[in-house]
Amino acid sequence: MEKTTTIGFIGAGNMAFALISGLRSSGFPVKNIKVSDKDAVLLSQRKTELGIEIFTDNMQLARQSDVIVFAVKPQILSTVCQELQPHINHQPLMISIVAGVKSTSINRWLGGDASIVRAMPNTPALLGVGATGMMTNDAVSKEQKALTEQILSSVGACFWVKDEDMIDAVTALSGSGPAYFFLMIESMTKAGVALGLDEKIAEKLSIQTALGASMMASQSNDSSNELRAKVTSKNGTTQAAIESFQTQNFESVVSHAMRAAFDRAKKIGFELDDNA
Ligand SMILES: NC(=O)c1ccc[n+]([C@@H]2O[C@H](COP(=O)([O-])OP(=O)(O)OC[C@H]3O[C@@H](n4cnc5c(N)ncnc54)[C@H](OP(=O)(O)O)[C@@H]3O)[C@@H](O)[C@H]2O)c1
């Protein structure tokens, strides 16, 4: 990425904070990161936390940015894009991290011919261990694709997916996924307390176990299925727990939950597509 590339974030909320923190930690020059939001109090907090330039006017930010990252809620995006349309003659790369909203809708709101990437990161980007799925529309050049990879790989692992439907699948898996693991930690903590453990100790054991299992899965050549088999001795305690999970159809519970997230992402896209 050129040292002079300027990235402007529209929306200074949780995800923008995670991505900007990751970019900063990866050595991206702070002076080339800008953010706009309608909340002046949040903006001044971001300026203090991150040392970046802040704007209350999205148009002013857009005119000064080579890459514009949309980090607002889905319902706001159409207004934001339509206001921006007269201010993007310099043809910046548009990266939308907004759940559900289709690239065709974004392109139409921007007046057509925009280079658009849809990306779905997740909040561990804050710590540089995010997971992101990405796709482009036809207007995105090879150089812009490489630039996107450079930006998003600075906050974790990223993968190109073949079409827009797969962005909704990524949303259901890794976009919303951290919350599934938080729920597992919460449930294991409560179950540990029910078995007599002190709550603080149960919580710390749950968190450390999630971290350890995740590190093992990411560093081992074995599949997660093989790793599970290795720690499940015949007639042992783990087997008793796994059999209980399976009797209660754990796989189906997970599959239904992810299908609900996928369907919700599709519905958001459909509801906000004024051409649908
Ligand atoms: N959180 C996640 O884990 C996650 C993961 C992947 C993708 N995403 C996507 O990322 C996007 C942002 O999520 P988030 O969690 O960061 O939301 P958020 O914390 O609510 O941040 C959005 C920010 O945009 C501001 N805003 C509203 N209208 C605006 C406008 N016209 N111009 C500029 N800024 C405006 C909001 O201000 P007000 O609050 O005052 O309205 C808020 O500060 C969403 O579309 C979501 O689908 C989120």
SSE diagram, text form:
Elements: E1 7-10, H1 14-25, E2 33-36, H2 40-50, E3 53-55, H3 58-63, E4 67-70, H4 74-84, E5 93-96, H5 103-109, E6 115-120, E7 130-136, H6 142-153, E8 156-160, H7 164-175, H8 177-194, H9 199-219, H10 224-230, H11 237-247, H12 250-272
Can you put this structure into words, describing what you see?
This protein has 276 residues and is an alpha/beta fold. The protein has two domains: 7-162, 3-Layer(aba) Sandwich (Rossmann fold), CATH 3.40.50; 177-265, ProC C-terminal domain-like fold, CATH 1.10.3730.10. It has helices at residues 14-25, 40-50, 58-63, 74-84, 103-109, 142-153, 164-175, 177-194, 199-219, 224-230, 237-247, 250-272; strands at residues 7-10, 33-36, 53-55, 67-70, 93-96, 115-120, 130-136, 156-160. Strands 3-2-1-4-5-6-7-8 form an eight-stranded mixed β-sheet, sandwiched between helices. It is elongated and about 70 Å long. The structure holds NADP nicotinamide-adenine-dinucleotide phosphate. Residues 10-16, 36-39, 42, 58, 71-74, 76, 80, 97-99, 120-123, 175 line the site of NADP nicotinamide-adenine-dinucleotide phosphate (NAP).
Question: Quick gist of this model?
Answer:
InterPro entries: 6-PGluconate_DH-like_C_sf, NAD(P)-bd_dom_sf, P5C_Rdtase_cat_N, P5CR_dimer, Pyrroline-COOH_reductase. By secondary structure, the chain is of the alpha/beta class.
